[in-house]
Structure formats: structure tokens, C-alpha cells
Amino acid sequence: DVKVTQSSRYLVKRTGEKVFLECVQDMDHENMFWYRQDPGLGLRLIYFSYDVKMKEKGDIPEGYSVSREKKERFSLILESASTNQTSMYLCASSLGGRRVASEQFFGPGTRLTVL
Amino acid sequence: DQQVKQNSPSLSVQEGRISILNCDYTNSMFDYFLWYKKYPAEGPTFLISISSIKDKNEDGRFTVFLNKSAKHLSLHIVPSQPGDSAVYFCAEGIGNEKLTFGTGTRLTIIP
Fold first, then answer.
1. What is the mean pLDDT of residues A90-109?
2. Is the Cβ of A73 closer than 8 Å to some Cβ of chain B?
């Protein structure tokens, strides 16, 4: 079974703090993704990565950066946290290559509150 | 601009009856479509998918229908069970595995 783990389930930070969210997958997947989930807005893609050291902006990258130094690990960084970044953050991974009906496997999520 | 819309934020269905969840999309380039299910405090899990070359895919109690001319996707659950109570997201993709998700529908199965 694919396992995607996220470093924290709940996190509380103060405005202006630098925040690191870590994600690790154990199935040698090529692709990794960071989403945020907000009520009424569904899942919105922040950043994704097709390979080590590669990154692509998603639909809402502003205020975020990412790092992928190793294939299994994808980190989301909030350089200076703001209250509008309070959300549920979800990491996902998928096998890679051009696939029809590609399945993404999700971690349990990190609920971040910025005070 | 929301490319994938789930116009019903919530739906209640009696146990044993059919649940129908709907999804509309605007991008005709999407070539595969998926449904995910999400329980509270868990990440979404994959349920069923369909490629654009098909109009129906069935897996046990779950059937997905694709109407390309109407740009409409639906998920049928028959019979509905209490464990089906969750938030359902449709998602659409184009080749490179970047998915666009809908806003979600909260399904409640009434015993």
C-alpha cells in the first residue's frame, strides 16, 4: 500500500513566522503535490513536482515555496505566515509518466492555524 | 474562474436508495475524470475513474457516467450505505497528471 505521511496533523503558528510542512511518500512515486482545502473552495493546487529538484506552480502559489531535494520528500514552506493561510494542507503523490485516469494518493492532512 | 463545479454542496439520501452526485466542467481538453471520497480528518481516497473515450465505468456499487457533449460527470451509488457518508470531490486531468478538483459535495446517508 502507498503511504503518504505528513509531519504534523495540527499546527498553530503566529503571523510572520516561517512554517515548514513536510511530506514523505514510500512508493518511489515521481510526482508530488501540495493542495489546500477550504470550505466551499474544494482542493486547490499550490505547487507540484515531477522530479527531484523540479517544481511547478499550481493555481495558488503566492505566499508559498517548495523544496524537493529527495524523491520521497516534498516540503511546503510559508515564508511569512499570514492569517489567510489558515487552512487544511494536503500532500499527494502519484506514479508518474503519462497515464490515463491517474490516481493520486493523499496524506492525512495538516490543519494549520495562523494567529 | 472555477473550471470544475459541483453545484450541490450537500445531499441527503435514504439508506438503500440511489445517490447521484454531479459535476460540470468547462475545459473540453480534460481527458480523464476521477472521483475521490473524503472522511473528516483524513486525506481524500480514490474511488473510481473514467477516461474521455468512455461514457460509463462501473465498480461494484459505484458507477461513473460521462456526457462529453454536456461536459457533465456523475457518480451513482447504489444501494447507498451509511459508510458512504463523506465529502465527494470530482477531479479532471489532462495527460500530465495535474488534476483540477471540484468544490465537493457532502453526502449524508440517512439510516
1. 79
2. no
Collapse the DSSP code of B23 into the 3-class scheme (helix H, G, I; strand E, B; otherwise coil) and give the result. Answer: strand
Radius of gyration of chain A (CA): 13
* Contact present, B32 and B48 (Cβ < 8 Å): no
Query: Residue A85: helix, strand or coil by DSSP?
Result: helix
Strand partners, A38: A42
Measure in Å the smallest separation between the Cα of B6 and chain A Cα atoms: 9
The share of chain A scoring above pLDDT 90, in percent, equals 73
Which pLDDT belongs to residue B98? 78
Kindly report the nearest CA distance between residue A81 and chain B, in angstroms: 23
CA atoms of B17 and B63, how far apart (whole Å): 14
DSSP H or E stretch at residue A73:
strand A73-78
Burial zone of A61 (CB within 10 Å; 0-12 exposed, 13-18 middle, 19+ buried)? middle
